[in-house]
Every structure is written in structure tokens, then in C-alpha cells.
Write a structure and sequence with these properties.
heterotrimer, A: Four Helix Bundle (Hemerythrin (Met), subunit A), B: Transcription Regulator spoIIAA, two-stranded parallel ribbon, 7 strands, globular
Chain lengths: ~120, ~100, ~575
């Protein structure tokens, strides 16, 4: 399941690049993501939605969360065309996807400690 | 290359052909054409068949060539000049120093 | 492959995780990292720390990346500070907006560190290239300023040397750029002691200081010898020898030199390598070309130098027109030459001779648009001798050692007469007598006239009546050259005697020749102020000197000059 959601290759590159900074990166990503998710759920302004989705897409792709990034891209480009119901549905999907991949990143933190 | 040299079989005649504009830009090449020859030739021919233009620095280069080739004892011919080039050589009276045809 | 030099790189990215990741990547590549979380902060950090390169997120709060990029570029000015945009916009969109904002490249998310390193390296190379270009430009500008200053100094020195001339005489009109000298163009004019005028229009090969430097010794010879009374041939020989000696082999000076005599109404011409000059005869409208018959000055060694001149008769109002090849070579916007034909057309179209000069200057300007630096023209007219007033010469000695009681005799024989002109020497001798100095011009004119009569009519046997018209004139000078070349025997004697008289003194000049003499009585009958091409010499001598008399059947002439104390 994790293979289609997370690019393992990308994770190992991150691990190698960040070295001891890896846990901090993971924490920062998770913290940022929570904030963004909250914003998406809270706002109805299509411009704001688009901007936050754009930002989220960026870090998600950097972190190898490919499906999450794809969902955010959909929201970013579709925010002004979609109906409020469609938007709510998409935000929920994003939330679900984040919940899916979160444990992987949590796990990575422990991994890092063990090296 | 706008300056082309040719030496006869017996090394006695050096032909220097100048193509295009014979002006200050040709200075280095022209000098090397006669300085870089192994054996000093008995006669030198400057072929201007493809030369389109001649200015006072070219006249100066011809003087340097003549001086290098022995001054008054030199045998330097300037051949195949077109009418424009001929006119310039005529005004400067260079036919008094060089065999011009 | 050369190792990448460490740079200071500014990372402007609002997403914390992305900023952290990118900073780590960039630090690992050996660079120093500065960070900013929005456009305004980026600008502030740039102002304070001046990073070498900027990685800029496109979408940021407060001020977006594009605006920040524009402002950073403006602050950087001439210096290149590469800006790489970080973006996950679509490719073509990204490129367009980045370029518009002045960005140099972009990097897509997810960040690929290999690609990033390559882009940083490429941008850094451009940055260093730009820095080199600016440095070299500044160096060139500095050197150029030095050069301009050197030229200014050289020009000031030259102007002092050249100022002793008479270019402002009423019969001379000229056109010359103030920087003509630095294109090798030279224009000199000076009076001889007899009141004749020497004019030289020259064109040195090369430009700038080398051309200017050659002009100074030339000018000194010109002015020095002209003032002493040397003729065209001697002056040219000396100028040629000097240039041949001091200039490198490939440098020379094309020149046309004139001697205009108001008294004899002639112009003597020598043209070495210059475009045709023109003698314009006002009465007939005829324009006689004066083509180059000689090599330029500084080419031939003294033994081979040809000093033969051409002499043409002139009437009052006639003018000689000389031009440098900058006139003919003037090109228009399409690189077409002004050319000799156009010049001839202007000549033909001209109705008012006084306007010709201005008409040509105007036509050149219209043709070209802006003036060339090496266009030089001069027009010299023949005025009535009485209207020509040369300035009094200035002497540098104190006057205490003036010789007042002496005499000297010279005899110039055969072959010496061919080459040697004794007049300047004799004049210098006489000018040692201070009392005579104010009459230097008249004395020289009389001496010259006596000598040339003795030589041409006496020794060479030339008939002065040949000079009654222009054709005869040319024939006369041809024969003069022929007979002089062939001369073996004959002599001219010059006796000078200075005697004190009261508070002043008296100079007696006697000139004798070995010729056949002439009918003195008949010539003396002619009215004193008759204007004729031939036989005018006797009138002149009688007008300028005192007690002129001829004896020994015309072979001996005697004239006196007096001065008060």
C-alpha cells in the first residue's frame, strides 16, 4: 500500500541528504501539513484554497508523498471551477491521504534514531 | 586566409596573394608571408587579383616588404591590380618604386 | 572538472520543510546559506548581505517571488545576481513568468540535488563572466581617458609650434577639423622674406600620436627654411630627408606644397601622393589639375629624391584649391564614395568662385551627415602684391654686434648653379646688419630678382618674352630645367658692400653674369608700373631699391639700399 502513496526512493535520498537533520525535517513537514490541512478545512475562499493547496503540493512532492501531492494539485487547479461540495469532498480525500502516510513518516523518525 | 604564399620549385620566386581588403588588419599575416620563408627569394610577386581595396597602411606594408627584400636592390612586382587599386598606386606614384601591372 | 567555489546563496521559501530541505542540500554542496520566508524579507536580506545567488520561491506571502526578483535585479544594477525560481507551476507557464520577472532559470519541485548543483554551477559561471566584462570595460575606459589626455597635451605642444604660420592671411580659406592632426592631416602656411607664400597640405599615414609626432619636425623645417628664404625644392629635399631619417619604413607623408608669388604672379607646385589639386583661372573658368607626380615625403632617400616642380602663371583673382583624400573618401550611409565625379560636378555647377569653398563644405555635410575628422581643404588666391602685408620678422639677438663696414664677393660657377641656391645664405649675412632688418623683404626680393635674371636670362640664355602667355610660360620653365641640367660653364657673381654713412649706412649689391647681356636702354624706357608677365623684374628692382643701374651691356646690375641710424 505504501508504494503507491510514498516514493521510497525519495525517502532514502532525503535520509541521506539530511543525515542528522532528518528527524527535524520530518517533524517540520508533519507540523506544517497539519496547519495547512486545518486551513483547507476551514476556508471557503477559492483563492486561499488554491494557494494553500499549492504550498502543500510542493512540500508533499519534496517528501515523496506522491498521491498527496497529486490530490493537492487537483485542488489547486480546480478550486475556482469546482462546486463547494466537490471541494469539501476533495479536502476530505486529502485529509484521508495524509492520515495514511503520516505513520510512515513517524516511523522514519524512529528509523533515523536507530542509525 | 586572406594572405596566401607560394614559393616556386627552385625557391627563387615568392608569390604573395592578398585577397579582400588589403588594410591594417592584414599587417601580421603579410609580414609573416615574407619573413617566414626559409631561403631568401630572388624575386617577389605581390598578386592583387582578389584584392578589393588598398589603403595607406597597405602602401606602408609594401614599403616594408621592399625594404626587407633589399631596398633599391630588390625585385618586387605588384601584379593583377584592378582599376581602383591601380588608381591608388598611381596617385602615390608607387610605380616609381615597384613594377606594377 | 574545476571544484565549485563556495558562494553565499539566499533561499527565499515560505514552506518551512522545503526551506529546511533546500538549505541542507545547498550547505552540503559547500555554500553558505541565508534564508527568508517571504519576498520582503528576501529583499531585506539581499540589501544587507549581498548574496551571490538567489533561490526564490515563486508564491510567497507579503511579497511574491516575482516582485522580489524584480526589485533585487534593480538593486543589483550592472552586477549579475542570478535568480533561480523554485516552482511547481507548469513548465511553460513557469518559464514565461520567470523570464518576465528577470529570473535566470527555474528549479522544479521535488528538488533534485544533482540538477540543482548543475544549475548553481552554470549560473555562477555566468556571474563571474559578467564580473570580468565589467572589470575589463572599466579598465579600457580608464586607459582611454589617459590616451585622450595625452593627445590633448600633444596637441597643445603642436599648436605652439604651428602658430608661427599665416593661415589667417586674407587670401587663404581653409577647412580643417581641430583634431585633424590626429588623423594625420597637416596644413601649414608661411611668408618668405620676399613676401611669397609657402603652403603645405600634408597627410601622414597612420592616426593618433604617431602621425602627430611626425608632423612636428616637418613643421619646423617648413617654417625655418621658409623664413630664411629657401625655395620649394630645397625645403622639400630637407623635409623628405628628415622624415626618411626619423620615421619607420612604413610611415610617410603625402603632401602638396605650393609657392605662391604675388610679385611674379606664379604658383610653383610639388605634389607627392596627394589627390589632384586644381588651379582655377577665373577669366576663362578653366580648372587646371595639379596631379601627383612624386612619391610621398619620407619614402626615397636623399639621393633619389625628385624635387622638380611645376610652375603655372596666375592672374589676380585666380585660386589654387587643394584637398586631402578624406574629401573624396567621404562615404554616405550606404557606403558610397563622394568621389572625384561629384567634386567635378560641384566645380561645374559653381557660378560664384567666392562661394565654391562653402558649397563643397555644404555638399560634404549633406552627403555624409556628420563631418569626418580627416577632411581638409584649402583655397589660396592670388591678390595684388600691394595687398599682401607679411608681418615683420622677430629677431632674437641684442643688436650690439652689428657689422657695419665690410664687403664680400662670391662667384658661383657651372655645376654649382644647378643645385645650390645662395640666396638664403646671403640674406642671413645681410640681416646681421641690424639697420637693414626692416627692409629684409625688399632686399630679398631684389636679390632674388637679380640672381634669377642673371641665371635665367644671363647664363641660361632664356628669353623672358616667352612668358607672355600660359603656354609660353610652361615652355619657359621646361627649357629652364633642361638647360640647367645640361649646364657646364658660366658663372654668376655677387658682390655685397656695407659702408657706414652718417648715423646709418649703405648697402651696395652688384650681380654679374657670364651671359650675352640685353638692350638696357629699351628696357629702361618701359613704364615703371606696367603689369606684364615678362620683363617685370627690372621694374621691381627699380621700385624697391635705389639707384638701380646696368652696365657691361646688361651683364652687370647694381642697386643700393640705405638706412638711417
Amino acid at each position: 500500500m505504501t508504494d503507491t502513496h510514498i516514493d521510497r526512493e525519495a525517502l532514502s535520498v532525503l535520509r541521506e541528504v539530511m543525515e542528522e537533520g532528518y528527524p527535524e525535517l520530518l517533524d517540520t513537514f508533519l507540523a506544517d501539513s497539519e496547519i495547512r490541512l486545518a486551513e483547507l478545512q476551514k476556508t471557503a475562499d477559492t483563492k486561499a484554497l488554491s494557494e494553500v493547496a499549492h504550498s502543500f503540493k510542493g512540500s508533499a512532492s519534496n517528501m515523496g508523498a506522491v498521491r498527496l501531492a497529486e490530490l493537492c494539485r487537483e485542488l489547486e487547479s480546480g478550486a475556482k471551477d469546482k462546486s463547494p461540495e466537490e471541494i469539501v469532498k476533495l479536502v476530505a480525500e486529502i485529509s484521508v491521504e495524509f492520515a495514511e502516510v503520516r505513520p510512515v513518516y513517524e516511523n522514519e523518525k524512529h528509523h533515523a534514531h536507530m542509525h | 586566409m586572406s594572405v596566401v604564399t607560394e614559393v616556386s620549385q627552385d625557391g627563387q620566386k615568392l608569390t604573395i596573394s592578398v585577397k579582400g581588403r588589403f588594410d591594417f588588419g592584414r599587417h601580421q599575416e603579410f609580414r609573416e608571408a615574407y619573413e617566414r620563408v626559409d631561403k631568401k627569394p630572388g624575386s617577389i610577386v605581390v598578386d592583387l587579383k582578389d584584392a578589393t581595396y588598398l589603403d595607406s597602411s597597405a602602401l606602408g606594408m609594401l614599403l616594408l616588404l621592399r625594404d626587407h627584400a633589399g631596398g633599391d636592390d630588390s625585385d618586387v612586382r605588384v601584379v593583377n591590380s584592378n582599376s581602383d587599386v591601380r588608381k591608388i598606386l598611381a596617385i602615390s606614384n608607387f610605380d616609381k618604386l615597384f613594377d606594377i601591372s | 572538472m574545476q571544484a565549485q567555489e563556495p558562494l553565499t546563496i539566499l533561499i527565499a521559501e515560505d514552506s518551512a520543510a522545503d526551506r529546511l530541505l533546500l538549505s541542507t542540500i545547498v550547505r552540503r554542496q559547500g555554500h553558505e546559506v541565508l534564508t527568508a520566508t517571504n519576498g520582503a524579507e528576501a529583499l531585506e536580506v539581499f540589501r544587507r548581505q549581498a548574496p551571490h545567488l538567489v533561490l526564490m520561491d515563486a508564491m510567497m506571502p507579503v511579497m511574491d517571488g516575482f516582485e522580489a526578483a524584480r526589485q533585487i535585479k534593480a538593486l543589483a544594477g550592472e552586477t549579475l545576481v542570478p535568480i533561480i525560481f523554485l516552482t511547481s507551476l507548469t513548465e511553460s507557464e513557469a518559464l514565461a513568468r520567470c523570464l518576465e520577472a528577470g529570473g535566470d532559470d527555474f528549479l522544479a519541485k521535488p528538488y533534485n540535488q544533482v540538477i540543482l548543483a548543475a544549475k548553481i554551477k552554470a549560473m555562477d559561471r555566468l556571474r563571474r563572466l559578467q564580473a570580468t566584462v565589467l572589470q575589463q570595460r572599466d579598465l579600457i575606459a580608464k586607459h582611454h581617458d589617459y590616451l585622450l589626455n595625452e593627445q590633448r597635451v600633444a596637441k597643445a605642444v603642436f599648436d605652439k609650434v604651428a602658430h608661427s604660420g599665416c593661415l589667417s592671411a586674407p587670401n587663404i580659406r581653409y577647412l580643417q577639423s581641430p583634431y585633424a592632426l590626429f588623423n594625420g592631416d597637416l596644413l601649414l602656411a608661411a611668408y618668405t622674406p620676399a613676401g611669397d607664400m609657402h603652403v603645405l597640405l600634408g597627410d601622414f599615414t597612420g592616426h593618433g600620436l604617431p602621425a602627430a609626432v611626425g608632423a612636428m619636425p616637418l613643421a619646423e623645417v617648413f617654417y625655418g627654411m621658409t623664413a630664411k628664404g629657401y625655395g620649394l625644392a630645397e625645403t622639400l629635399r630637407e623635409m623628405n630627408a628628415k622624415l626618411k631619417r626619423i620615421l619607420p619604413v612604413d610611415m610617410f607623408c603625402c603632401a602638396t606644397m605650393l609657392c605662391l608669388s604675388f610679385q611674379r604672379r606664379t604658383v610653383e607646385v610639388w605634389n607627392g601622393g596627394m589627390p589632384d589639386g586644381y588651379l582655377h583661372r577665373i577669366a576663362t573658368g578653366e580648372r587646371v589639375p595639379l596631379p601627383a607626380r612624386h612619391l610621398p615625403l619620407g619614402v626615397l632617400n636623399p639621393q633619389a629624391f625628385d624635387d622638380r616642380t611645376e610652375v603655372q602663371a596666375m592672374t589676380v583673382g585666380d585660386r589654387v584649391f587643394l584637398l586631402s583624400d578624406g574629401v573624396i573618401d567621404t562615404t554616405d550611409a550606404d557606403d558610397r564614395l563622394f568621389g572625384v565625379e561629384r567634386l567635378q560636378q560641384l566645380f561645374a555647377a559653381n557660378h560664384e568662385p567666392d562661394n565654391l569653398f562653402a558649397e563643397i563644405a555644404q555638399a560634404l555635410h549633406a552627403f555624409r551627415g556628420e563631418p569626418r575628422d580627416d577632411v581638409s581643404m584649402v583655397e589660396v588666391s592670388l591678390l595684388e602684391a600691394a595687398h599682401v602685408v607679411p608681418p615683420a620678422p622677430v629677431y632674437s639677438d641684442s643688436g650690439q654686434s652689428s657689422p657695419l663696414d665690410w664687403s664680400v664677393s662670391f662667384e658661383f660657377r657651372g655645376a654649382t648653379l644647378k643645385r645650390f641656391n645662395p640666396l638664403p645664405y646671403l640674406l642671413q649675412l645681410l640681416l646681421e646688419v641690424h639697420g637693414l632688418r626692416t627692409q629684409g623683404g625688399a632686399i630679398y626680393s631684389v636679390l632674388a630678382e637679380l640672381y634669377s635674371n642673371a641665371l635665367e636670362h644671363g647664363v641660361l640664355g632664356l628669353d623672358s618674352s616667352l612668358k607672355r602667355d600660359a603656354a609660353g610660360f610652361a615652355r619657359y620653365y621646361e627649357m629652364r630645367n633642361e638647360r640647367l641640367e645640361a649646364l657646364q660653364d658660366g658663372y654668376v657673381r655677387v658682390h655685397l658692400q656695407i659702408k657706414p654713412q652718417g648715423a646709418g649706412g649703405c648697402l651696395v649689391i652688384r650681380v654679374e653674369d657670364s651671359g650675352k647681356g640685353f638692350d638696357v636702354a629699351r628696357v629702361m624706357e618701359r613704364p615703371l608700373d606696367g603689369v606684364r608677365l615678362s620683363g617685370r623684374g627690372v621694374s621691381l628692382i627699380r621700385q624697391l631699391g635705389h639707384n638701380a643701374s646696368w652696365s657691361d651691356e646688361g651683364r652687370s646690375a647694381c642697386v643700393e639700399f640705405f638706412w638711417e641710424g
